[in-house]
């Protein structure tokens, strides 16, 4: 297990699900963790109290405010951009404004947060996005915008890895498959459909995703950058 004693970690979207598991993992490993939330203040405050971390309300869909918040926090050793929304539905019926907001949260926020953090990030820092295996495989209808918003992160980490590599800052994307959270409960109505696409026919846990994030944030992963890691039970294999 990596140790992050004294490291400053920011997790965007940490109040629930995978983000909360990431907050728990870094806090357990000794990091000073700040996380953002938007719609779930009670979950956020409970997690902050449980882990000794700090919760700040910030909408990842409001990029100017998000950038200002990151600047106000000072140098970060690790940035994890986890905040994301699904936005599933018939594309002929989905309001264009909803699609634009999905891209602001899932895609634009990742870019702006990474650049804002990199301005003061020390050499050897880590930037990790939570993408999706749907960047590589989209076997269901109604998720075109979502999969596009996550596929963009694969290109983004390749470019940002070049931009920040001279400072030994790594930039990678972790791409979960079905993972047991409020967004995708392990006992939800689509579980059998999703498991059919998988070699290992179960949802992942948030802790399993957090384990890969911790590895990429740790000292053994200093040469890994510009990469996308599927952690999906073979969903996209
Ligand atoms: P949940 O819906 O369970 O949790 C989403 C988290 O993101 C919450 O903490 C939520 O905070 C936060 N969030 C959402 N919108 C915003 C916003 N506008 N501003 C700030 N925070 C926000 O989702 P998961 O834990 O399942 O998903 C986490 C990430 O993993 C997402 O990016 C998702 O796309 C990705 N993913 C998930 C998979 C799965 O099967 N679960 C599979 C592949 C990828 P709050 O409630 O406080 O607003």
From TrEMBL:
Q: What is this protein called?
A: Cyclic-di-GMP-binding biofilm dispersal mediator protein
Q: Does the keyword Oxidoreductase apply?
A: yes
Tell me yes or no: is Oxidoreductase among this UniProt entry's keywords.
yes
Annotated Ketoreductase domain residues: 7-179
Q: Mind listing the GO molecular function terms for this protein?
A: oxidoreductase activity, acting on the CH-OH group of donors, NAD or NADP as acceptor; quinone binding
Q: GO biological process: what's one of them?
A: fatty acid biosynthetic process
Q: Name one Pfam family in it.
A: adh_short_C2
Q: Which InterPro entries match?
A: KR_dom, NAD(P)-bd_dom_sf, Sc_DH/Rdtase_CS, SDR_fam
Question: Which region is the signal sequence?
Answer: none
Keywords carried by this UniProt record: Oxidoreductase, Plasmid
Family that this chain belongs to: Belongs to the short-chain dehydrogenases/reductases (SDR) family.
